[in-house]
Amino acid sequence: MTMHIPDQTGRTAIITGGSSGIGKAAAAALAAKGARVILAVRDQTRGRAAAAEMGGLTESRPLDLGSLASVREFARTVNGPVDYLINNAGTMTDTLRHTTDGFESQLGVNHLGHFALTNLLLTQITRRVITVSSTNYRSAHIDFEDLQWQRRPYRPFGAYGQTKLANLLFTRELQRRLNRAGSPILATAAHPGWAATGFTMTTGRRLLDHALALGTRLLAQSPEGGARPTLLATIGDVPGASFSGPSRFGVRGPAALEELSGEALDDAAAQKLWEVSEHLTHVKFPLPTA
């Protein structure tokens, strides 16, 4: 896992959700190469245990992406340059739930929390912002008229897919803004393919959920395998706004670049989502335009 990663001594990485799954695997790989790694996690018991297991310059700090106050407090504690911000954490719920700030929970945690965190830290980031998405974006749609599922019947899988599409549109618009600002920072995205990480997919249909769980036990790759695309997006020779994933049918295997399709390439939607996200979080892009 670490053999193709160059020495990371002197570099700092922040990884949300870094106490389990692919986040933990990516964090461990960077820590093993000498990076200072900050695990930004809600459960500090698990976070401290993961940091102790990784050793080196690894630490755990509290972050609840479902609370903008927590996001702001976490950002306030980060001093000095950050080489890599890896927006890895995610959630999926089978019923309509809301964050502390009243956002639909999947949108709030998977997109808005990371949107706010990225912009609050952007003046300290020196190399890359990496956001973990999913191939579920392909069947998703951003419904700007009902972003929070206030009028539509709630569909867990639909809500999840919307946030994964939002991750890619966020990456696209972030790179556009970084380019306009003359910044050398790259915004990249990745997906783990089919990986056994403990993350539960909920479609709202019991038989399909059982089939997915069975398929995960039989076919999914390890968290270490699922973390390869994240690591490629973090330290690999990839362009801005790129999308990394497993090379074998997008499910498993070595990491490689993938072509995006459909609404993930919609620049107008990306700009609109950014504006809506700024309005909802009260956090704006902090770099001046060149």
UniProtKB/TrEMBL annotation:
Signal peptide: none annotated. Keywords: Oxidoreductase. One of its GO terms (molecular function) is oxidoreductase activity. It holds the Pfam family adh_short. The keyword Oxidoreductase applies. It comes from the Bacteria. It is an enzyme of class 1 (oxidoreductase). Its EC number is 1.2.1.-. SUPFAM superfamilies: NAD(P)-binding Rossmann-fold domains. The keyword Oxidoreductase applies. NCBIfam families: PRK06197.1 (NF004846). This is Fatty acyl-CoA reductase. It comes from Nonomuraea coxensis DSM 45129.
